[in-house]
Structures are given as C-alpha cells and as structure tokens.
Design brief:
alpha/beta; about 300 residues; 2 domains
C-alpha cells in the first residue's frame, strides 16, 4: 500500500427522496442500497465501500430527514444526524428543483454548522431545471456554509462519478484501509436479502402500505443442488401493520407476493452470483414501528 494512501468515512445527508441511495449505488458501482420512488426508502445507515488505487472511501447512506411520526421515524433521524460527527466528510444532497432553502434543508445546514465538518454540496436532478435556477440555488447555499466544493449532478448519470470521488479523495487524510479491498459493503447477505425484498415491495405496492413493511429473513442456508451448483435457500417473512395490508401484499390469488418474490430473487441472484430459492410469507405485526427491540435494529452501529 502506498505511503500516501488515504481513507475516511463519508456521510450522505439529505431530505427524503433526494437520490442518496441512487448516488451511493452509482459511486460504489454495486447495488448496496434499496431504491424506490418513495420517501423514507432507507431506514438505517448503509455502508458502501469504494476501493481506489490511492484511497478507500467508506460511504454511509443515511435515512432521509423528515418529520417524525413514530418511534421508528425518530430513530431514523437520530441515525442520520449522529453520522455527521463520526464522518470525515459530508456529502449534502439537495434537489435542483428547490427554489430556495426549505425547512428540512435548513435543519441539516444548522447541524452542519454545529459540527463544522468538511462538506461537499451535491445538487441532484439538474436535468430538471434551467441554468438560472441552478445558479440561484448555488448562490443561496454558498452564503450559508463554506462548502469544499459544489457539484451539480444527475445521480442516474455515471459521468459525474469520477468528479465526486476525486473531490472526496482530495479532502481525505492519509490513513489505512478499514475494509478488505474486495468488499463493497459491510452488510451481511441476510441484510442485503431483506433490503432487496423490501425494495421490491416498495416499488410494487400502494403508497399507504410500504412504510408499514418490515422484512425479516428467518432462514438462509447454502447447499448444493443435483448439478453441484451452490444455491441459497432463503425464507423470509414480510410483516405489515394491519390485516387489510396483508391482503394487498399477497394480492389476488397470491399474484402480488409472487411478483415481489420473483423480482427479489432475480436481483439477489445477480448480486450474490448464485441460484436463489426464495420463499416468502406475509404476517401482521401491529405497532412494530414502536417496538423498542425492532426499532433499535435501525440505530447507527
């Protein structure tokens, strides 16, 4: 390893649905975070690792900042803000479509001022606005905080990846690699399986159901089939808050649950590099969002 090798932790902070998980997956080059066009997709801090010749960058994707309504929501926000002081650099994501600094972004700015952390402002979704709007936004935010850099991007376009990584590396200190260079996330396969199933449910279900969903993998065993191929037997339970939601998740003749399972299986086979035998069930677990034992799983470790 080179003497000038750099490393550090980079927190991704922003309101809900600004594209943090999409950006994380783009930067890491692997699917490590659930993506859905719904708010509050990310519930806990997810780490993605980028190994470069001269650095190792550990990204921490955090839940979006929103108004808390349950104990789970409160824990999610606590997780987001507690990642700031523990990070070396913060990537603060905002939407280019914002005309001014909104209430949620103002709260984040105040937290950044408290911490005085090195921060890079990422303005996402620039393809949706005119240049004048973008320049106005850059001016407004630059008055509020001394950012190391301001980078306008579209998180679905890979051409911005290297610009962001180079800017981060420039601001890191010399340090060791914290993870093996072959790793791209610190999540276990069980956690990745749970996230994948939940992501598919988020994408396919109606708005009132997804945020009441909890996925728990009950069984995950590796075996070899008759063709001597490795295959994972995975059994997972999708918990919902109400009996009426159970029917929606299962769908007519079980069709919705089959669709969720099929999409999750395809994604996992691609990510895990092996065959998956996935079985899913749906059960009701009322008020799990206020259950301390469950909610504590989402705290920053």
């Amino acid at each position: 390893m080179e003497d000038n090798f750099k490393s550090g932790f980079v927190a991704l902070i922003g309101r809900t649905n600004v594209g943090k998980s999409t950006l994380l997956n783009l930067l890491v080059g692997e699917k490590v975070a659930a993506i859905a066009n719904k708010v509050q997709t990310t519930r806990t801090a997810i780490r993605g690792i980028v190994n470069r010749t001269t650095s190792q960058i550990v990204f921490v994707d955090t839940p979006g900042i929103h108004k808390p309504k349950t104990k789970l929501n409160e824990t999610m926000i606590e997780t987001s803000f507690s990642s700031i002081p523990d990070s070396d650099i913060v990537l603060f994501l905002i939407e280019a479509t914002s005309k001014d600094i909104g209430k949620g972004d103002r709260i984040i700015l105040d937290k950044l001022k408290e911490s005085n952390k090195k921060t890079i402002l990422i303005i996402n979704k620039i393809d949706l606005v005119k240049k004048e709007t973008l320049l106005h936004l850059i001016d407004e935010y630059s008055k509020e905080y001394n950012f190391e850099a301001v980078i306008p991007i579209s998180a679905i376009n890979s051409k911005y990846k290297e610009t962001i990584l180079e800017e981060i590396e420039k601001n890191l200190k010399v340090g060791p690699a914290y993870y093996d260079i072959e790793e791209y996330t610190d999540q276990t396969l069980r956690q990745l399986a749970e996230e994948t199933i939940r992501e598919k449910a988020l994408k396919l279900l109606q708005d009132e159901v997804p945020h009441g969903i909890l996925v728990e993998v009950e069984k995950m065993e590796l075996r070899k089939n008759k063709q001597n191929q490795e295959i994972y037997d995975i059994e997972a339970t999708i918990y919902v808050l109400r009996e009426s939601h159970k029917g929606i998740v299962i769908g007519k003749n079980g069709e919705m649950l089959k669709r969720i399972g099929k999409l999750a299986r395809i994604d996992m086979e691609d990510n895990f590099g092996m065959k998956i035998n996935l079985k899913t069930w749906v059960k009701v677990k009322q008020d799990w969002q206020s259950n301390d034992t469950i909610v504590n799983k989402f705290k920053l470790k």
